[in-house]
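dumping this here before i forget
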Amino acid sequence: MPQGNKKLGVLAIAGVEPYQEKPGEEYMNADQRDHFKLILDAWRNQLREEVDRTLNHMQDEAANFPDPVDRAAQEEEFSLELRARDRERKLIKKIEKTLQKIEEDDFGFCDSCGIEIGIRRLEARPTADQCIDCKTLAEIKEKQMAG
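structure:
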């Protein structure tokens, strides 16, 4: 279980404590990029381990139950697990895209307006590619299009 940072009230992602900014520090310097790379690598590894556990669980638990109710219950359980793993697979792809942005020195800035996303927002969502204002606006537009 990740350790929480009591001082800031922020949970550590993937067991990595939140970054402590230093006064006058340049935004997205090498230390910050290394910090987020560490978080993203650890998170990706956790997700991959979960995928492996699910695969092993499904292989070990797969049974041909003669009772249709038991068989249906198992199929439903497997279906839910596969849906969760599909979401995690998409998240792994997003993590890898973010790691690529770090390598290209293009991480931490809004894809829409170009301003700094901010250390605290990136701590909460390391794969964020928009500042909070642009993301909020995008969500409003999405709701209007759906409605």
